[in-house]
């Protein structure tokens, strides 16, 4: 027998290993899907690992195998929620757009994302109630937003160079303005409806609010 044959993994063994990895990834993603819903609806204290296990294709024992603790599971759900929006921000195409159009495109991206990911808004709200004590332990979140903020900074630099944008605003200022509108619209939907009898997420208001957000940010950036 050729001794070199011992250096090569058996094709079937390699296939089984790859399938186990895929199964583990699917199981972990399934757990995070259910955990995101449970934590966003029940809060950190109210969510139960037993209930999360009951709604997945795994067991409580396996959840602790993957995440070690309830806090780690909650933090993993938070991290993934932030990673999703940061990834979408990095992929937005603003090349070839003028600074005004680019700012509007970024505002619309956040508007669309927050509308379609209400669990993200709830998780962030819950974590703020806890004083961000869990997210402060994350090793992956610091710096995660840097690429998106750099894109926004470059748009602002371009707008200032063209004489269109004021020069006393930075990327975090604009990010805060956009996020404030989008978070309020989603997080306060029910209380706003109860008090003012207007559902801010009603489809008939969607384009009005989407346009209003872009107008608001641009009006501020171009104010003299």
Number of strands: 0
Q: Would you identify the regions where 5 or more consecutive residues have pLDDT less than 50? A: none
Number of helices: 10
Helix content: over 70%
Terminal-residue CA separation:
82 Å
What coarse outline follows from CA principal-axis ratios? globular
Order of helices and strands: HHHHHHHHHH
| Share in β-strands | under 5%
Walkthrough of the structure:
Helix content is 72%, strand content 0%. The chain has helices spanning 11-46, 49-54, 60-67, 70-91, 99-116, 118-129, 146-161, 171-187, 189-196, 203-221.
Short description:
By secondary structure, the chain is an all-alpha fold.
Give keywords.
72% helix, mainly alpha, single chain, 224 residues
Question: Could you outline the blueprint of secondary structure elements for this entry?
Answer:
Blueprint (H helix, E strand, L loop, with lengths): L10 H36 L2 H6 L5 H8 L2 H22 L7 H18 L1 H12 L16 H16 L9 H17 L1 H8 L6 H19 L3
Helix pairs in contact: 1-4, 1-6, 5-7, 5-8, 5-10, 7-8
